[in-house]
Amino acid sequence: MCKDCHSDIWGTFNQNPHFKSIASGKEKPRDTGCEGCHGPGDRHVQAFGGKETIAAFSAMSRPQVLDACLRCHAQTMSRANIGRSPHTLNAVVCTDCHLIHGTPARKFLLAKAQAELCYQCHANVRADFSMPFKHRVNEGFMACNDCHNPHGSFAPEWRMASRPKMTGTGAADEEPCLKCHTEKRGPFAYEHPPVRIEGCEICHSPHGSTNSRLLRRPVVFTMCLECHNGSPGFSLRGTGDPHPSQAHNVTDPRYQNCTNCHVRIHGSNSDSLFRR
Amino acid sequence: MKPKSKAIRTAACLILPLVCAAQQTDVQSQGGAWGDYTVSSSFETGYRFQTVGGNDAEYRSTVNFGSGVKLLESSFAMNSKDGHGRWFDEILLTTRGLGGDPYESAAFRVQKNRWYRYDLLWRRNDYFNPGLTTDGAAGAHLLDTQYDSQNHDLTILPQSKIQFHFGYTRDSQSGTGIATAPGFDAATVFPVLANVRRLRSEYRVGNEIRLRGFRLTWTRGWEDFKDDGGSPAAGAYGAPVSGGATLSSFSRTEPYRGTSPYWRVGLFYERGWFGVNGRLSYTAGQRGYLLDESTVGLNLAGAAANRQVAAYGTAQRPVAAGNLTISAQPASKLTFVNQTSTYNVRTEGNSAYAEFDNSTRTTQFAFFEYLGIFTFANQTNINYQVNRWLSFHGGYQYSDRRIRSIQQAVFAGAAAGPAYEQVNILNSGAGGMRLSLLKGLTLTAEGEVGRANRPFAAKSDRGYHTIVGQLRYQFKSLRLSAASHADYNSNSTAFTAYSSQSRANTGSASWAALAWLSLDASYSKLHLNTVGGIAYFAGPQLASGESYYVSNIHSGNLGFRMVFTKLATCYLGYSIVQDTGDGRGNPFGNGTGSTLPTFQAAQTYPMRFQSPMARVSFRLMENLRANFGYQRYGFRDDFHSQQDYGSNTGYVSLLWSF
User: Fold this and answer.
1) Are B141 and B179 in contact (CB under 8 A)?
2) Is residue A217 a contact partner of residue A202, using CB atoms and an 8 Å limit?
3) Has residue B235 been placed in a domain?
4) In chain A, what residues touch B527 (CB-CB under 8 Å)?
5) What would the pLDDT profile of A171-217 be if each residue is shown by its tens digit?
6) Residues B48 and B94 in one domain
7) Does B337 lie at the interface with A, CB-CB under 8 angstroms?
8) Which candidate from B109, B279, B549 shows the least CB-CB separation from A154?
9) β B256-271/B230-231 pair status
10) Could you give the CA distance from residue B145 to residue B177 in angstroms, rounded to a whole number?
């Protein structure tokens, strides 16, 4: 009956993932079709339409929108943390990103290309991905959800299990970076401990950077020396990360790019100084 | 306006994002009927061109579009009309950049309602990373590789209470590069040729069961990794990066094999006001490695020298992680969530190292760094909605991380080195509010404060706080947003002080002003300044001081989309990133902190990267359009011009949709 008035929605609804519930023929009436989301439509029909006579999402409060969708979708494990996600806490709900009745982006009913959706609120991230060195999100090679779970994630297992939030994980509950950069995962005979303990972000800006290799500094030696300064209290032994020996005259340009020699800086199986 | 025409214009406005000269399908195909199915598809093929002036290596590292005929973009969709297709109900195929673009991808889905769903995602990236020069410190490494990734997922009975999942992932990277290897003395490092051959394979099988409000999932996976890279027998390449020795022959083989079988189990339950969500995972990582390296040449004294190094061993890294989230909604406006997580990893193994200098064994020892990390964290969040327009949330987290390590190399027969242990405890609290002042106007603000007592590194979080505020306004097609993020961290000891301050202030707007005109604009100011203690040798003298780094990045994006009836669409865009640094006009001026010019020059990095673009699309026939795109990329390093480049890229294409 709905299609008599809402033919524009019904016309392409067979391409909509929600059409499955209609096609199955086994769902309870309250879980399928238009009434599955909009509730009973008797009053709506009798009144010849109107938002007041049906559960219209545009008239719902944001928590109500979330609850309506989660009635079916809460059980998927990737959405199991949605209740504590920063998106939910800031009242960003499903219809902010998804067009339920159909969308030009065919997958996941996204209202726009995924990155464009995220940029709507995260303009600083758009700036990151406009940098000369960046992961190829704007080029379509990667997507935000390769590394993030917009529906909420468990606590990260690196750093102090506190920050960053809404980040996915690799196979061994590690940083998502290692899903692609597997060669840096190890285990190595000599690990560079910050990689494992603090994560890649201590040296790299994962979205984008003005510096090559997404480094946080334009030259390598300043970044290394900010930790390798001999300051007591830090490092595995608590004696501080050692500063370079006298053999390194940092006024000489050849000693300013530390990874020229310490080539296996993420970890090595044969050299505690990461030179091979 | 006719509804269909309006729909086409709306779709065009939605689909044309401000990205790059990578094409976008202008108009979504309306499709047609084919038996019991509806079919819609589009293909855009054409010629891409590019010219580069300046540093081509920098261009390949940052943009990398080439010339040639490409299948720029395509899509094909087939859906059953009634959801009861004989073999399938949906086939969906989309591709992008096929034919040699540096960023190629294809996604394929086929599914039959209730019976199966299969997804494939394939991606290929031509990756070029030269040894870029910044501030006079040339990088000696280069990578010219191709990265391929394919991911397969098959779900049997996707709408059933018992589902079966199978998956396979294969990632590979292959190509050539230039690496470095140590010479015959501590000061000498040689550039050497290197092959890159890495392969990661992952197999997954799992099950999902729903019963009485519970959902149980388990996945058993096997991840294999192998690296057959190394340097070929004639691996010498050029003069040494440092030192004065001479390399005449170098070879290195270092096969590396590993497997990481894992289990993941998840349990989810929600009933009324109460929900539980738990996950356990265990990964038993293991690696085996072998290094055989041969170096022949002349040492610093000019005498013939050779060095043979052999290293071999195994490593294990078992990882166990657990998470438990309890959610409760004791009142309709009050939500309570508590999450506990644990993480335990240890890296251990055995390894042997032997070195022969001029055919005489000089070094032999067994070694391994033991590294164990155990983290426990508990977090509680409360969200209270006062009324429809006001809500508050707050939370507290306690984290406890223990690190244990044994670092020393062990000569044969010697005792193991002492163990070191450290404990870091983090207490952090967060709070925020959301206020809807008017219809469509929302203000959100939140902050977090954390204190750690034993940070691991000088740059780690110790005393940090973040403040985030965002104002959003939406009225019909007008969307305005302004946000401010501040992230401060201070980590000081008696010897050094490290602090970082980053602030990001952003504003963005999007508006479909008219039926034929829409625009997107955003501006961001990203500010970062850090100060940290450093110690270094400047010649024979040990010096210490502070390292400053200042960055002021202005980033802007602007895009106009215009739809001139059905006949033509146009998109104009501009993107700029400019770091104004600390305001100085030359690398050695006005620096603070260290008195060394080297450090002062590295305290800031002013540069500019801008990219104007234009794209037009003309309708030739009902289902055929001609497209033209142009995008320029310009990179300028204010202090070092050797990496500057300007490139013109574009394409001419035909889009056929039916």
Assistant:
1) yes
2) no
3) yes
4) none
5) 777 889 998 998 898 888 888 999 989 999 999 999 999 998 899 98
6) yes
7) yes
8) B279
9) unpaired
10) 8
Cβ-contact B111, B158 below 8 angstroms: yes
CB atoms within 10 A of CB A28: 8
Instruction: State whether B107 and B191 are in the same domain.
Output: no
From B285, B317, B349, give the residue that closes a domain: B317
Per-window interface: B 39-58 vs A, CB < 8 A: none
What is the number of structural domains in chain B? 2
Is residue B636 over pLDDT 80? yes
| Contact across the interface for A196 and B371, Cβ inside 8 Å | yes
- Measure A21 CA to nearest chain B CA, in Å: 9
CB-nearest to B605 from A126, A163, A218 is: A218
Query: Is B492 within the bounds of a domain?
Result: no
Residue B2 has pLDDT above 50, yes or no: no
Residues of chain A with Cβ-Cβ distance to B496 below 8 Å are: 229, 231
Same domain for B151 and B295: yes
Is residue B655 in some structural domain?
no
Answer whether B399's CB lies under 8 Å from B351's CB. Answer: no
- Are residues B157 and B294 located together in one domain of the fold? yes
Q: Does B459 touch chain A (CB under 8 A)?
A: yes
For the whole model, what pTM was predicted? 0.91
Q: Same domain, yes or no, for B280 and B181?
A: yes
pLDDT for B444-489, tens place per residue? 999 999 999 999 998 899 999 999 999 999 888 899 999 999 999 9
- Going by their DSSP bridges, the two strands B568-579 and B541-564 should be labelled as antiparallel
**CB-defined contacts A:B, below 8 A:** 464
CB atoms under 10 Å from CB of B282, counted, come to: 17
Quick check: B230 contacting A, CB < 8 Å?
A: no
Asked whether B4 and B506 are in contact (CB, 8 A), the reply is no
User: How far off is chain A from B45, nearest CA to CA, in Å?
Assistant: 17
Domain hosting residue B226, numbered range = 140-317
Which of B114, B133, B152 lies at the terminal end of a domain, its last residue? Answer: B133
- b/e map B394-417, b = 16+ CB within 10 Å: bbebbbbbebbbbbebeeeeeeee
Give the residue extent of every domain in chain A.
Answer: 2-112, 178-268
β-partners of residue B336 are: B328, B382
When the pLDDT of each residue in chain A is averaged and rounded to a whole number, the result is: 87
Chain B CB contacts of A106 below 8 Å: 75, 77, 92, 94
Interface touch A272/B22, C-beta < 8 Å: no
Provide the ipTM: 0.92
Average pLDDT over residues B27-51: 84
The alpha-carbon gap from A189 to the nearest alpha carbon of chain B, in Å, equals 5
Identify all chain A residues contacting B54, using CB atoms and an 8 Å cutoff. none
Whether residues B495 and A218 touch (CB distance < 8 A) is answered with: no
Pair B163, B129 in one domain? no
Tell me which chain A residue has its CA closest to the CA of residue B91: A15
Closest chain B C-alpha to A231 CA, distance in angstroms: 6
d(CA B536, CA A228): 9
Q: Distance (Å) from the C-alpha of residue A148 to the closest C-alpha of chain B?
A: 17
- Nearest by CB to residue B17, choosing from A116, A136, A241, is A116
The residue that leads in pLDDT, A156 or B292, is B292
What secondary structure letter does DSSP report for B591? Answer: -
Mark yes or no for CB contact A22/B83 under 8 Å: yes
Size (chain B), residues: 658
- In DSSP terms, B265 is beta-bridged to B218, B280
B353 falls within a domain: no
Looking at the fold, whether B169 and B285 belong to one and the same domain comes out as yes
Q: Are residues B54 and B187 in the same domain?
A: no
